[in-house]
Every structure is written in C-alpha cells, then in structure tokens.
Design brief:
Radius of gyration: 20 Å
Largest sheet: 5 strands, mixed, barrel
Helix content: 25-40%
Distance between the termini: 40 Å
CATH superfamily of the largest domain: Recombination protein O, C-terminal domain
Number of strands: 9
Length: 255
Amino acid sequence: MYLTIRGLVLRITDYNDRDALLTLLTGSHGKLTVKARGLRRRNSPLAGVCQLLTLGEFTLFEYKGMYTINEAVPVEPFLGLRKDLERLALGTYFAQAAEVMSQEDLPNPELLSLTLNCLHALTALSLPETMVKAVFELRGACLAGYTPDLTGCHVCGRPDADRFDLSAGHLECAGCRDDRSGGLRMPVTPGELAAMRYLCSCPAKKIFSFRMPEERCKGLARVTEAYLATQLERGFSTLDFYKSLLMEGIGDNHV
C-alpha cells in the first residue's frame, strides 16, 4: 500500500550502517516513524529532504507494518534557520516538544500548523525569539489538552489575579491559596496574563498578532516554559542546549 503525505522531520535515528528512521509530524496521520533506505550512504538521493526541520512530501509504502520512503521532495527546508545556531537550536526544541505532544496515527493538523508557523516566524519574521518560544509553548500546551483556566483567581474569582499555579493550570491571588493544590506558583504581570489569555483563545492565523516589548516577552516565556514542562512532566535536552548558547552569547554565529 502506498501513501503520499506531507510531514515535518522531527527526528532522525540511525537504523543500521545504511538506513535511518525518521520521525515525521503529519496533519492526517499524526506522528509517523518511517524508514529511509540508504540515507546514511554518501550522495543519497534522500539527503536533501530527510533533514531535521524540513517539511517534505513523502511517498511511502507499507510492508509488514513499517512505512518506507519510496520518493521524497522538499517543500520547505527552512534554510534561514540553518544560518543561525541559536535559532536552529530553538527550532530543534520545538521539534522535540512536538514529538512528545503528538501521537502515532492520531491526526493533529493544528500542531503541525503551529510548529510550521513558529519555524517560519524564526526564519522570516522580525520577532523576538522569546515571543515565538512563548507562542509555541502555550499554544502547544492547549493543543495537547492542557488549556489553563485564566478567567480569574481560582479561590476568590478576581480577574486580576497575579499568580499562576503551574500544576493546576489556574490563577490565584498572592493572598489566596487553594489548599488542595500544592503546586508551584509563578508571578504573572497584567501584560503577561493578557498575552496568555490571547494565545489560548485567538484564531490560529493570528497567534503572532499581539505585541510585547522584548524584555516582557522574556518573562512570558519563563512562565510558558515552566507550564509546558510541568504539564508534560519532563524537560528537554534541546532546550538545555538552546539556553547554553544564550549563556555563551554565541547565538549570532553562523553555521
């Protein structure tokens, strides 16, 4: 059986001396693991499309429950990402997180669209990296089933609550505390809260239509990062690498 599908390469794993396994994020089939025969050979015809963070059109054939690539052509290689190590690292974090948030054979066109839009933003839009990161993390959490309750304080109902419970995914005032929740609370400014509310409810085509000063985007990204990690109950090696680049100050170096 043959299947033609568009997918974003999230991960590449060595299979043997000649072949590799690709993890693809697709809209119609969710996460797919496919075999790329001969990819590890020099001058492989698949090398141009079977690269991390490349959107391609793949013709697959299925044999004994395993999909193998028959043909593949690149659709969007996001070449701009590969010229900046810092943005490439951030995009790789998006890929690793998207792999965790997706499931095999469960259609998820919204997650694919979000990931592609965030990679495009890193490549072509003049937006702070922290803003793109926050958009991906919070909107991704919503798509994964972890939409927070941001209507008001979970205890007293005030809409201007200034604490966000990372475990429960709801707001509380500094002086309020839900005794049933022992989770970590992070402070949120009015601007951060407004941005979070917008990202949880806005149309997908307008996820980058809000504006915040870059310094405030950093605070927003700290909250969204902590929330996603708490809900997924894991960290990400790619995020650690991205942060190490920020610490070293080499993000503007080209690769």
